[in-house]
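W.,

You were right to be curious about this one. When I first looked at the sequence I had no strong expectations either way, so I just let the prediction run and decided to look at it fresh. Below is the sequence, 127 residues in total, followed by the output.
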Amino acid sequence: MTISSSYSPAIISLRTLEVTSEIESLLACYKPIGIIIMPYNIKNKEQLKSLCKKLRQFVPFLLIDQEGGQVRRLKPPEFYDAKSMHYFGQLYTLNPTETIEALILQTKKGCSGFTLLPYKRKLRTMS
């Protein structure tokens, strides 16, 4: 599937917790292909859901940097406690099999580098 050429080849960040009419105008005008979610965009799980729902009206991709350890935008207790790769490296020396299983579980939870947040709207395709 290809993305419509009506989007600009830009991924931006917005310093906000909610989508205002000013931000709507900006997104409608510049049409970025994606928005990266940063810590300053997250107050709690419900607010983040609401923000993402609104942003999905304007962009095909929402991204979040969720590698684990210090690099995690979604933090406990509301979100999964993603471990760092350093943690898994140390654990691997003690028990390789369990470490691989734990790493697979973390990856399935969406904690393996840059994560595209689940997207439920069909992307526009080029004609």
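Here's what jumped out at me. Confidence is low (pLDDT under 50) at residues 118-127. And, maybe more interesting for your project: The longest strand covers residues 61-68.

Coffee later to discuss?

I.
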